TrEMBL record:
Coiled coil: none annotated. Residues 6-249 form the CN hydrolase domain. Belongs to the carbon-nitrogen hydrolase superfamily. NIT1/NIT2 family. Keywords: Hydrolase. It holds the Pfam family CN_hydrolase. This is Carbon-nitrogen hydrolase family protein. One of its GO terms (molecular function) is hydrolase activity.
Length: 272
């Protein structure tokens, strides 16, 4: 229905490596805060339950989609009556994937997405997924992605072509002194990436990253909800916490914007 709004929240946190119990407690606190503020969907970072640099512990920490951690996450979604999207290491088909789970407000697991684009050493840690995923939910059609997937414009456009009303990204953008001081790779860069993907596709986008130090790197945060114009409508900055915005996947204002910003329709694929 036109002008129906849903409150979308990004929950920025510092996942502690190998502390699943502690991370689950922090996740529930963030979900509770977001739900009390009216959030219908709460999005968490990549590998939020385990921490990112866990390659030597994946055999122990990776679980199936119906394992104890997923069961606990479903219970959190149910207790707070909110959709919950979160990054986890997934054990499936005798392999391990960098995955994103999506739960409904009744606690049911709606979708399991496997990260398609693996970055650097991740190729030694995980198997790559091979299926873009857009999920029908009570909120609308949600396109799922994890971290490095966002770098690839063709992939995010595929999600939009498949009908996504909202693209979500669970991430952990990291930097160090070399990347930050020499090349300027920091929070502003990843926010610009999210803004560009939203703008070029005319789609709502919500990206949630980690913050804090881990294994000699710094997670830069930058979690945000971005309008189809590229405007950031909610930002968590560089601290742990929740940021949220009300979004409408159909509205007169959005129709008016898309009539101006005809980017997808104006593509010339015959030339490139």
């Amino acid at each position: 229905m036109k002008n129906d709004q849903h409150r979308i929240a990004v929950a920025q946190m510092h996942p502690v490596p190998d502390d699943v119990e502690g991370n689950l407690g922090k996740i529930e606190r963030h979900v509770a805060t977001a739900a009390e503020g009216g959030a219908a969907l709460v999005i968490f970072p990549e590998t939020a339950t385990t921490g990112y640099f866990i390659a030597d512990r994946l055999a122990r920490l990776a679980e199936p989609a119906d394992g104890p951690t997923a069961t606990a996450l479903g219970a959190i979604a149910r207790r707070h009556a909110a959709h919950l999207a979160i990054g986890v290491p997934l054990a499936a088909d005798d392999r391990v994937f960098d995955a994103q789970l999506l739960f409904g407000p009744d606690g049911a697991l709606l979708a399991t997405y496997r990260k398609a684009h693996l970055f650097a050493a991740e190729r030694d840690w995980y198997a790559a997924g091979d299926s873009p995923m857009v999920v029908e939910t009570a909120l609308g059609r949600i396109g799922m992605s994890v971290c490095y997937d966002l770098i690839f414009p063709e992939y995010i456009r595929k999600l939009v072509d498949l009908g996504a009303d909202l693209v979500i990204n669970s991430t952990n953008w990291i930097t160090d002194d070399f990347q930050r001081q020499t090349w300027g790779w920091d929070r502003t860069m990843v926010e610009a990436l999210a803004r560009t993907r939203a703008l070029e596709n005319g789609v709502w986008l919500a990206m949630t990253g980690s913050v804090g130090p881990e294994a000699g790197f710094d997670s830069v945060g930058g979690s945000c909800v971005v309008a189809p114009s590229g405007k950031i409508v909610a930002s968590a900055g560089t601290s742990e916490g929740v940021a949220a915005a009300d979004v409408a996947f159909e509205s007169e204002e959005l129709d008016r914007w898309r009539a101006i910003a005809t980017y997808r329709a104006d593509r010339r694929p015959d030339l490139y």
